[in-house]
Design brief:
By secondary structure, the protein is an alpha/beta fold. The chain has a seven-stranded mixed beta sheet with strand order 1-7-6-2-5-3-4, with helices on both faces. Helix 1 runs parallel beside helix 2 and helix 4 runs parallel beside helix 5. The longest helix is centred in the first third of the chain and has 52 residues. It is globular. The two termini are about 25 Å apart. The relative contact order is 0.18.
Length: about 240
Amino acid sequence: MNKLAGYIFSPLHYLAFGLFLVIFHPIQWLSLKLGGYNGHKRSVDILNYFLLGTYYLIGGRVKFSNEYDLPTTRPIIFIANHQSMYDITPMIWHLRKYHVKFISKIELTRGIPSISFNLKYGGAANIDRKDPKQSITEILKLAKRMRENNWSAAIFPEGTRSRDGKMKPFAPGGVSTLLKKVPDALVVPVAINGSWKLTRYGNFPLSFGERMRWTVLQPIEPAGRPADEVLKETEMAIKREVEG
């Protein structure tokens, strides 16, 4: 039934999703030119509000839980597992007051309306995974922006999406660099559960009626602790939430 309904409703979802990307591309450009960073960020936040609405066109049920009063006076490193491309929009919208910047593949900075523009001009770290030197340089630039602007970062340490919901081991590279260069940052795990099911049949059809959950877990104070230890604690917390 999920697959059959997906054939019917996936085109509606993709049509709306693509339409919002196209509409907001010039809006982002204009917002950046007239309103600078703050204007551009508002346009990106609004875009992701509408993109989140397209999840419901495929019958998705989205729940974002955060019971913690996270600080806005210091940078935060949000560390999450990665299940699908649908992981990102709810994080941008629900964590918008923390000015979260993603560490993403450089390939995404080309050819995608709105998304590529935001990655280029919104403060993200766009890394070439085939070029370790470039990747480190980009993450160092992000760390500098975090310190100077009190921004936060989001990173998926698995490095690639999990196609079946089972987590892959977390790689320490990017997290270790950020912790070293932004020593006052707070680490906050985010467990993503169920978004992989949306693409269980591939990009078409999407699976209709899937429950998806984003859960902000207990923040971790990394000060004075080895980065590997902090990352391992984060990984275990997320794994307990996702895999039980």
